[in-house]
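Hello,

Our lab assistant flagged a job as stuck in the queue for most of the afternoon. It eventually completed. Since we weren't sure the result was trustworthy after the delay, we are filing this so someone can double-check. Below is the sequence as submitted and the structure that was eventually returned. Let us know if re-running is recommended.
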Amino acid sequence: MIPTLVFDLETIPDAEGLRRLNPQWSDLGDTALIEAALEARRESHGNDFLPLHLQKIAVVGCVFRDDQGFRVKTLGRPEDPEDVLIAGFFKTIGHYTPTLVSWNGSGFDLPVLHYRSLIHGVAAPRYWDTGEDDREFKFNNYLNRYHNRHIDLMDVLAKFNGRANAPLDQLAKLCGFPGKLGMDGGQVWQAWHEGRRDEVRAYCETDVVNTWLVYCRYRLIKGDLDATAYQAELELVRDALRESGADHWREYLSAWDHA
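-- returned structure --
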């Protein structure tokens, strides 16, 4: 079995980057600076979504599926600096060469990882290879939109047509999975600022499990899994979450039972 790595980022505004680019805010503390930047963004764009290069990575959530089973986790510790999280993600790719799976990874998560790894100088030769080191990567690499080493499910299901994109939360629920529970990406900064870091990490974990379950359904309709194998994958997830015993997984399993 080729290992599969489902990934998702949770980001917060980059206070240090905003300070470097906006000297007029240099005397402000981080919180006041970020609030000033968000307000300026709302005035100029009608929303407070900052450009991708100013999205600091706070959490990297992963599902890892290989011959050893199914695991879900967030990388590192809540207090780890951003470059450590980025290095851990790319180290996993360098070691396992997994198939990457995401929801809107081409539009958000990977560009953020590109910019932030560039800022920190985090090397990831396996990820960036397009055939220079491994000839097979010339025809199937992580960077080409239409190759399969990275499968952006949102992109593929919309037939690479942005007007046809669907939200993960809604599609997961329509497929009978729990979807998002209690938080969405727009609430991450506030929760992180309030010290609710474990809550943000738990939210990210549920998002990658939602993505994994939708990916399993995609493999079913694609013919990679028959009905028996598909149900076995779902039960593997249920068993792993039950064994964890964490509060967010109990809530997730309860929502799944009622879906």
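-- support follow-up --
The delay was a queue issue, not a problem with the job. The result is valid. Residues 197-222 form the longest helix (26 residues). The first strand starts at residue 4 and ends at 13.
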